[in-house]
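Q: I'm building a small set of examples for a reading group on sequence design. Run inverse folding on the following structure and report the sequence directly after it, with nothing in between.
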């Protein structure tokens, strides 16, 4: 018998004995009250499939007539729903039956619990900074590659091969920093694509850049430590540093990258870390010049500061003109290099990596061991094969070609008779564009517009949310690359109409 049925029947039997002792009525009435009480106690949760009348009658030693009468009463109260071919399922929907509100799990008064830690409170407070819309709409959600061209069958074949030949030893715990074969492949990939030379012992496999930042900040940041972030920057990055108790200092960005004069003005605060996106500044798309990269390294050396080089979307941003990474220019082992496959392949992959300075590797691995343990080995093995067989390079070419065509189409459609917004940087440099308003719009109006667009199945991010200080620019961050061409045309028109009416 189904294990779930056994669990359900045991709870019903237990409750039946209790009800029978208290109120010895007809069997079907006692059984009805027993199942109802199990539902109200959430011993049988919402959408749980109940045993068939035949199975339940056999297990309880009742007639099917008794079970049918019981189920009919429960259906009348809408405590269970009968669906043709699907059986009877628990329907624990508070909106259906008001008397069940009495048993829902609202916090009980006058109970005392330990307070949240200061860090826990900060993470909770800064959730408002996070860009995390759990929306299935692709138009025009930033941070997505062309999902429709991902080689699903190729990946599936590699994964099937992994499970076909897996040994029992492969199902045990794995090294927290990642599988050696994948780290070795990443070293080779970085050497060819970025001229980065590192030892595989420096590589830590993670689920994405946010996990990398969590590990780095947890290892290095004490409450009040000064850190410098580009202004504007990723809201999610800002949230991680604030939640770790850091004193966040914003340095503006000019046409060559982060402003060194502003960074130097923070010298007296002794910044511990600088987070930068030199290949593709977020959200502006500015590329840090070679001269500015060297200046930043010299400043870090003089001030005993570590640099975090977040090299997201580098393959797209620098497919024509490549500048050396800060990591490759660093001669003092003070750069932490972050990258992720999630923004290139697909976000549900949950796979990235960082290169950690030698003096930090043991501490980072220890924290990884105490928290996330390791990334799923099957994904690591398949990713290793994906790199070794040259599939990654092929796919990156396809991504760039597809995204570039969709970028051109998006610009063309967006700029047609658009009297409300414009795109300042028209260069193809990343997988999103930034649209600004032609007339002054308040931050409140910007957020209201984003809400209206969301109600109409168009997802965009706030530009003002990327700024750290009081001075903010209003606008929309629009991801175009995951949207098929005919949908780009349809949704751009729809979006422009909504903006026109709203402004």
């Amino acid at each position: 018998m189904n294990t779930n049925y056994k669990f359900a029947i045991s709870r019903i039997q237990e409750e039946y004995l209790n009800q029978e002792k208290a109120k010895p009525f007809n069997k079907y009435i006692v059984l009805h009250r027993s199942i109802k009480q199990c539902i109200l106690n959430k011993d049988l949760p919402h959408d749980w499939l109940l045993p068939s009348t035949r199975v339940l009658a056999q297990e309880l030693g009742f007639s099917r007539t008794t079970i049918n009468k019981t189920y009919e009463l429960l259906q009348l109260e809408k405590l269970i729903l009968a669906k043709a071919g699907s059986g009877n399922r628990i329907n624990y929907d508070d909106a259906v039956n008001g008397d069940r509100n009495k048993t829902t799990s609202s916090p009980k008064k006058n109970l005392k619990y330990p307070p949240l830690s200061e860090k826990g409170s900060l993470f909770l407070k800064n959730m408002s900074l996070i860009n995390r819309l759990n929306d299935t709409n692709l138009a025009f959600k930033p941070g997505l590659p062309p999902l429709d061209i991902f080689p699903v069958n190729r990946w599936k074949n590699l994964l099937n091969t992994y499970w076909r030949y897996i040994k029992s030893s492969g199902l045990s715990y794995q090294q927290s920093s990642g599988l050696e074969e994948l780290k070795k492949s990443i070293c080779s990939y970085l050497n060819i694509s970025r001229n980065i030379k590192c030892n595989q012992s420096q590589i830590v496999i993670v689920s994405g850049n946010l996990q990398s930042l969590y590990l780095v900040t947890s290892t290095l940041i004490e409450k009040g430590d000064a850190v410098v972030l580009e202004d504007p920057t990723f809201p999610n990055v800002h949230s991680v540093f604030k939640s770790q108790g850091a004193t966040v200092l914003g340095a503006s960005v000019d046409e060559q990258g982060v402003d060194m004069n502003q960074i130097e003005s923070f010298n007296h605060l002794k910044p511990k870390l600088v987070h930068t996106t030199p290949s593709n500044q977020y959200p502006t798309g500015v590329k840090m010049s070679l001269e500015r990269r060297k200046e930043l390294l010299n400043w870090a050396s003089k001030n005993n500061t570590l640099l975090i080089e977040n090299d997201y979307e580098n393959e797209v941003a620098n497919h024509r003109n490549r500048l050396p990474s800060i990591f490759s220019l660093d001669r003092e082992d003070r750069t932490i290099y972050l990258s992720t496959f999630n923004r290139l392949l697909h976000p549900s992959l949950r796979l990235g990596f960082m290169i950690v300075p030698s003096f930090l590797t043991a501490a980072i691995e220890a924290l990884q061991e105490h928290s996330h343990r390791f990334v799923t080995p099957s994904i690591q093995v398949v990713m290793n094969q994906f790199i070794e067989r040259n599939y990654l390079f092929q796919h990156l070419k396809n991504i760039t070609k597809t995204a570039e065509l969709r970028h051109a189409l998006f610009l063309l459609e967006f700029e047609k008779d658009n009297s409300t917004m414009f795109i300042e940087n028209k260069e193809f440099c990343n997988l999103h564009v930034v649209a600004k308003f032609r007339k002054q719009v308040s931050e409140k109006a910007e957020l209201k517009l984003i809400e209206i667009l969301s109600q109409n199945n168009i997802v965009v991010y706030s530009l003002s949310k990327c700024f750290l200080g009081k001075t903010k620019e209003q606008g929309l961050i629009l991801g175009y690359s995951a949207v098929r061409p005919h949908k780009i045309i349809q949704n751009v028109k729809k979006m422009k109409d909504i903006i026109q009416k709203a402004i």
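Confidence is low (pLDDT under 50) at residues 100-104.
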